[in-house]
Fold this sequence. Notes:
The chain is mainly alpha-helical. It has 4 helices and 3 strands, in the order H-E-E-H-E-H-H. A 3-stranded antiparallel sheet has the order 2-1-3. The radius of gyration is 14 Å and the shape is globular.
Amino acid sequence: xxxRYEAGLLQDIGFGLDLSRxxxxxxxDDLIYVSPRTGRAVSRGAGEPxxxxxxxxxxxxxxxxxxxRAGDVEAGFALTGHFLEQFVFNPLNRPLPPARVWLIDKLRxxxxx
Length: 113
């Protein structure tokens, strides 16, 4: 829920992710990456050559019916954290909030990521 909250916050302040279709091909299926530059989804086929440079797209961000798999929550925090840093906190010369870092650390320690 917190990852979805952060994605909604990005949307509300004008930096929403576009996860509706592949930025490279326009395909709407098999979206598994996000461009760290544009915030747009990328399909498996189009993103494979660049997979080391792309962010993972957890499937639960694509719709309510997708389940949460191992690693999805951590990938979600990495995704939203990247854009929060890029568009919100870096321009203010500020780090991500310590409470967010603390929450992620606690979830990791508890084996929830």
